[in-house]
Amino acid sequence: MNIKSTLLLGAAALTGFAPTAFAQDHADHQAENASQGDIIVTGSRIRRTDLAGVGPATVVSAEQLENTGVVNIENVLQRLPAVAGFSGNQTNAYWTGNGYGTAQVNLRGLGIKRTLTLLNGRRLVAGGTGANSSPDLNMIPTIALARTEVLKDGASAIYGADAVSGVVNLVTRNDFEGIAVSARNGITGKGDGHDFTADFLGGIRNDRGGLMFAATYQKTQAIGLSSRAPCALTEAAGSLVCALSGNTVGGRANVDGTIVNFTGGDAYEPYVASKHGFNSYHYLNAVSPIERISTGLFGDYALSDNVTAFAEVLYTHRKSNQLATPSVIRGVSPGLRNGIPISALHPSNPTGQNITLLGRTLMEAGPREFFQTTNTWQATGGLRGKLPNDWAWEVTASFGRNTAKDGSTNIVNLEKMNETLSVNCGTNGAPCGDYLGVGDMSQDVMDYILYTSTDRGGNQLMSFTADVTGELIDLPAGALAFAAGLVYREEKGWRNPDPRTVAGVANNNQQDPVSGKVDTKEAYLEVSVPLLADKPFFDAVTLDAAVRYSDYKLFGSDWNYKLGLDWKVSEALRFRGTYGTGFRVPNVPELFSGMVQGNLTTADPCSKLTGSSAATLVTNCAAAGVPTGFVQTGTNVLTETGGNINLKPESSTTWTLGAVFQPAAIVPGLSLTADWFNIKIEDAIRSVPGSMKLNLCYNSSNMSHPFCADIDRDVATGDVTYIRSQLNNTGAELMRGLDLGLVYSRNIADVAVTLDLNATYLDKYDVVQSVGTPALTYDGYLGGGNGGYSKWRGYGVLTANKGKVTATWSTQWIGKAKDFYAAATAIGARVPNVFYHNAQLAFEVNEKTRFSLGVDNLTDRKAPYVANYTDGNTDTMVYDLMGRRFYVGFRTGF
To answer: How far apart are CA 701 and CA 80, in angstroms?
Structure first.
């Protein structure tokens, strides 16, 4: 019999002792066993006595959430130093993969798709607007959470695919009785960005079980970007000036080799960027508005002394939108991006010559508005119980579905625009379009060429699990414990863009439909073997091992394993280490997404070259036809991204080595932790940002880099007009670093003080984009659409409680970093250490009633200027644009 058959039969046999199996980290079972000294923790399916031996983990309790004033779970997670790179949040305009409005977390900065998000140990359906790669963290009402457990270690052998960089497990309460209501109202120091949140929690319990209902409503108003950053900035002559877009409101055109700008009527003059350029920041938001209601119903009922039925039902409705600049026309079709030819015979052309319109912002129509309406629900039900030998079991079925409608206003239909530019306009059923001059575009032309696009999409998850855990035999050092189980999971995603978008008549926004599914069958086995106990220097030594077999219909089978050793020297000192393999199969959007075109912030290395510029760069830019003294027009480049059906799974290896020191006899209440981590990912699935492709191409010898084939440049103007950035399996990613933690609790007089500090040092993060190319260094860098990878990040919380008054101070530290692409002497090439300070004062009237007053970003720390910024002259994936903000909170219960 082969090893595959052995594992499958073993898991089936163990789960077959009862008609159902044990839960995956279920909170109810955790509370049930806590009184017996055993708990279920994230990173293991075996009941344990504590969390410390499993691996590096952070636990954020409901009390800590309340004391820091956070109402969205992604906000507190994105403050943790183990989180880096980029992910979706309300102040980030670059939500990825149709995920606008979706809250996400990115452990280690390795990508949201490599962080597994669970609710009570079970997977959640993806959020967003169709064919997405991660759940929406705000799907769960915050008031229902007991704690959030963050495992900063690979766990594919325990949980299957996606747990490459770690696991976030949201654990709900199971003991609530009565009614609780709370509300929080916030506003910025500038009087905008009003944010209101209200929560409701109701529960009943008796000797047989209970029922709990939770709901959260949130509505946040927009903050205009120009109130925080008046214009996009660029360096000129050693100072920062506005970098205005060349897609002017009057139209920038090539007239017989001269670049001119049309100013209105029949007038035009030589184009001057500082005079004619368009300031897009007046039509963007620093914070996008959102309105959401999230609900959850949780119940359990004891059918007998040994069998309990349970169920969870979640539903979230969300409306969100984001402002975008007015539509820009620069080509008559997505295939022609170098300008719009306008005949000398067209009635709007005052030059008497055939001209090429290079770019025109349709200011007359006003800004575009991207909008999303999503409905997401998930139902989970099952049975759990105990066998006579005290083994615990559970069987569970889950079904989740997310549906969405999204789109954009003021989209240009290029076919109809072409009709308005025909010399036969007016007689061909189309009005004659005058795109040459500020305010010259008539309402009848706008009505003819503009439309509102409507896209529809969704995600679906179906899973069945059967698990069992318990103790097999007694060894001299203790009982050998195990967990085993079987899993079937099917994930679907689809997205149907507006038919006009699919047809390619939408300006700069062509998309293809998406539809596909990935399904898997899995079996796992985990054991915990006590090797030594109650010996000098060996208070306890435990070996943990796990193996998982996964069979994917699209990709075949895969084996993964994990080994862990926990050495408890004494009550004061323990060492721990893990080593494991991991994998991640391409998800639905990565496999099946069609091509998508959009204007992305991109830095052209051929812009503003000086005598100190690298010789290779200067030579290559000249060879590409870039004019001497060229300055990039605007900051955006039309970029094509999309899925790739030929992707293959990526694999990883992770090891950690750590220590926990709790010198209670010397310093009571002190706990110190240190964990070294090392992660290697092979065949990594990545989409390389346009700025990086440009830099690698133009700094390679004779433009020999493969990325050069993905770049189109207009030789007439020097501007990059198009970049292809499709997903591919790249060479490898290598990351290593150190997590440090300190918790200290003591009483000073009659004041209870707790200090909780966490820091992460990123020693190395190298990315090999393709086999045979040099590694790219990410550690210590930020910007250019990559997010931030500063060497040091930290987060600390100081809480002081006296009687009914609690004061909390928290500080987030983002270490200094360099811009990925800027010259060392450029403004914004180096970003200093940034600290965000937050404070809250709370007063408890009684056990159930509490008032709080807080300030976030107490010192009103402004976002630093980043040379290759995303928006707002900074990296909005890293820094805060809102500034100082105040809030008041209240809760009570019955």
So the answer is: 41
